[in-house]
Amino acid sequence: MEVFKNYEKLQKHLNPKESIGFVPTMGALHQGHLSLIKESIKHHQQTVVSIFVNPTQFDDTGDLDRYPRTLEKDLAQLASLNQNLWVYAPLVSEIYGPAPPVTNPYDFGALTQTMEGLSRAHHFQGVATVVEKLFRKVNPQSAYFGEKDFQQIRIIETLVAQKNLNIEIVRCPIVREVDGLAMSSRNTLLSPEERSQAPLLHTTLCAAKAQFLRQQSIDTIKQNVHEIYEKAPLFSLDYFNICDENRLQDIKNYPAPQARGFLAAKLGKIRLIDNMPF
Ligand code: AMP
Question: Taking the CB of the first residue and of the last residue of the chain, which one, N or C, has fewer CB atoms within 10 A?
Fold first, then answer.
């Protein structure tokens, strides 16, 4: 495994005749990230992992400043995985030049007018901007994304279709801690008390799913979720939605094939998200 700040230098080490799997990350790697990387290694002769905390996808500068940066530890985790693994860890200037762009060039329609798109106004513009730049540099056959960020996957799938990029987007399941908490780089920022309460997101989704499978009214399920968070003082619920997996539009009635529950809440200062197929 070798690490590069400059993509042209990295590219010299890649064999153009061998396939490339690509895993974009913001670092502070955990088993969730590693599951994507292992999946790529399984299917491709070469794997490129990017580690880049992308400033344009953060609306909240506090969140950007706090975001954990643990490059040495990340590299140590990757070192033993595979010989043909390349880490691309650019500086902001390598990706954006002297100043990151302030334009919003993408139109993902209704996909961005819900959930994370509403709560974080420029988030998906920033995600799409960096992912398109990285895709055009790395030019992989496949790129691996976690269902932890399910709305993001739908945005990337749409980006690839809109830009006619010949890249397979591979969805990978959510990796969880033993207590159900979805792994996330932000979990390390939780205080011990917050960490002990954090599995509530997963428990809530499980309870809501059970009610959904019994075909309780969607309004009642939502009300039950809101009541749970009213009684949990460390949390501030941002949204709980039941949406169809393709268009991410709210489901109001049964039958509801391809439904998924989505939840976002702040726990202290840290914003957590989770989702689950219903
Ligand atoms: P991030 O570093 O948070 O931008 O995440 C990089 C990639 O890892 C994204 O595709 C995420 O969806 C994925 N990922 C993050 N956490 C998990 C998890 N717990 N399970 C599976 N994939 C994850």
Answer: N
